[in-house]
User: Which sequence fits this backbone?
């Protein structure tokens, strides 16, 4: 591969950093510059781009709880927005045609419908990148946005399958066998451990069992990678696999964004139409906000979710390319849509970088909401008259809960992200609610009563405990905070973030074990 394909993205990334723009904007510009210099998309670059998208969808699946798609806030918003957005865009384009817009002079109803449908999608690649960079894939608005994007991807796959006039192979029914096969796949995930074997296993599943198998039976391979990831999502090691694949996925996605810029060079005409289309993304965002608000989500959730989805999509380009191959769209429209998608990424990147500040400025002009009438998944979290709060109700957190209630008679509130664990503990009489302490929205909704004197941080990893400490300080909590660490080098770090007491899990277990053995032997400590 020519060195220019490697140097240009690096230079573009550095320029984007200097302008405080997301890296993907630099990669897009690098593609346009390479195109202007006469470079073309190579087969290797196309393969790298396809691998990046496939691995991205696989890692999305690893983080996705399928029940998210079943929420009415997800499938209802995705469906209603697809219909309304497509209709709105058709109406606007038809109006432009009536007033004599030259680019639409020869457009018939079918062309307008395809353009409206293609522009109704939001970008899975872009939105997930934005959420990952901000560390908010687990936030409620992030989970809802990803669920909606997956629903849109499913709509695109249905369109692509239908427009080709070819049904999936009868062998596609055999894919149902993946459901009973899922426990075996999860079992192997546990056996491969960590490191290079985990990465290799993930790549084999994404590209082999996912992409290649689904393509073989006539279903889009990217959807297969997503589904295989979803089958593994319930395993505790799924998050570790996602992290292990992170750098590989990021590297391949560089090729995807560069390839968009290499698609074609803009003309004044196509650039002008594309710029006009970009203005319409604000109407898309307004529709998303309206539907989120209709489902009684908090203003912040609705605003940030809508803003994340305010862009066009690479899936829209796939739809357009297929329409062009069938003779439904001209090459000029393919170039126009490519530019519109790229420009929408740049505009959306700037908006999302300032989304929190924008919300804080607009919150006073947004319609007020009654907290008691909010959607149950987005209401404020009250700990009531609890005297202690335990974040993380695994074995350690549960032990702390039992000790505080049994030995000290405190009223304790447990919080855990695992809904099955919450249900099981609630049945056993524990006072526990489902919430994710790594979700920024959790801290936005949390109200800690003055009665809370102790907070126990028993989350399974160090970083979430540090995040929780920082958020507690922002809430001006001045009670005692005790945290659990697994490694000695984490003790000083978590103390620096404000923990009053730190318990080293393995050292503490060793001390307790020795004390128990000595006590059983009738020994007394000196």
Assistant:
């Amino acid at each position: 591969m020519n060195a220019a394909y490697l140097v240009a993205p690096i230079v573009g990334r550095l320029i984007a950093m200097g302008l405080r723009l997301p890296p993907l904007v630099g990669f897009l510009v690098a593609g346009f510059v390479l195109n202007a210099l006469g470079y073309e998309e190579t087969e290797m670059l196309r393969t790298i781009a396809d691998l990046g998208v496939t691995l991205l969808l696989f890692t999305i699946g690893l983080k996705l709880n399928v029940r998210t798609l079943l929420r009415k806030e997800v499938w209802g918003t995705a469906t209603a927005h697809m219909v309304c957005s497509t209709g709105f865009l058709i109406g606007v384009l038809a109006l432009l045609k009536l007033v004599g817009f030259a680019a639409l002079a020869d457009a018939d109803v079918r062309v307008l419908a395809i353009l409206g449908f293609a522009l109704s999608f939001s970008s899975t690649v872009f939105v997930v990148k934005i959420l990952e960079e901000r560390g908010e894939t687990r936030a409620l608005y992030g989970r809802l946005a990803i669920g909606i994007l997956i629903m849109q991807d499913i709509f695109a796959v249905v369109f692509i399958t239908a427009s080709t006039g070819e049904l999936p192979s009868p062998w596609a029914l055999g894919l149902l066998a993946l459901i009973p096969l899922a426990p075996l796949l999860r079992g192997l995930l546990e056996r491969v451990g960590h490191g290079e074997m985990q990465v290799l296993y993930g790549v084999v599943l994404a590209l082999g069992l996912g992409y290649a198998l689904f393509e073989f039976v006539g279903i889009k391979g990217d959807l297969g990678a997503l589904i295989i990831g979803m089958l593994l999502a319930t395993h505790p090691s799924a998050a570790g696999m996602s992290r292990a694949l992170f750098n590989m996925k990021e590297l391949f996605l560089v090729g995807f964004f560069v390839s968009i810029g290499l698609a074609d060079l803009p003309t004044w005409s196509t650039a002008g139409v594309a710029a006009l289309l970009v203005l319409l993304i604000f109407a898309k965002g307004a529709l998303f906000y309206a539907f989120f608000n209709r489902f009684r989500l908090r203003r912040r959730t609705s605003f940030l979710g809508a803003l994340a989805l305010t862009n066009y999509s690479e899936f829209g380009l796939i739809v357009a390319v297929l329409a062009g191959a069938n003779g439904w769209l001209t090459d000029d429209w393919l170039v126009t849509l490519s530019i519109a998608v790229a420009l929408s990424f740049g505009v959306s990147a700037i908006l999302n970088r300032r989304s929190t500040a924008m919300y804080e400025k607009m919150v006073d002009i947004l319609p007020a909401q009654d907290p008691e009438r909010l959607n149950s998944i987005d209401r404020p979290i009250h700990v009531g008259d609890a005297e202690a709060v335990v974040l993380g109700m695994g074995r350690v957190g549960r032990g702390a809960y039992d000790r505080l209630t049994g030995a000290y008679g405190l009223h304790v509130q447990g919080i855990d992200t695992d809904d099955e664990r919450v249900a099981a503990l609630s049945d056993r009489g524990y006072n526990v609610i489902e919430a994710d302490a790594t979700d920024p929205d959790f801290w936005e909704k949390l109200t800690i009563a003055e009665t809370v004197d102790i907070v126990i941080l028993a989350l399974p990893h160090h970083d979430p405990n540090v995040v929780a400490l920082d958020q507690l300080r922002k809430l001006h909590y001045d009670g005692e905070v005790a945290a659990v660490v697994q490694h000695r080098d984490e003790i000083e770090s978590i103390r620096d973030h404000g923990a009053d007491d730190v318990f080293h899990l393995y050292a503490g277990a060793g001390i307790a074990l020795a004390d128990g053995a000595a006590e059983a032997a009738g020994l007394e400590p000196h």
